Amino acid sequence: MTTMNRVRFAAATLLLVVTTATAAPAQQFQAGPPTVGPENGSLVVVGGAMRDPAIFQRFIELAGGPDAPIIYIPTAGGADEYDEFYQGLNAWRRNGATNISVLHTSDPAVADTEEFVEPLKTAQGVFFGGGRQWRIVDAYAGTRTEEEIRKVLERGGVIGGSSAGASIQGSYLVRGDSETNTIMMGDHEVGFGYLRNVGIDQHVLRRNRHFDLVEVIEAHPELLGIGIDENTAIVVTGDQGTVIGASYVLIYDNQSTTGENGTFFFMSPGDRINLATREATRPAQTQRPIENVQKKPWGGGR
Question: What is the pTM of this model?
Answer without folding.
Answer: 0.89
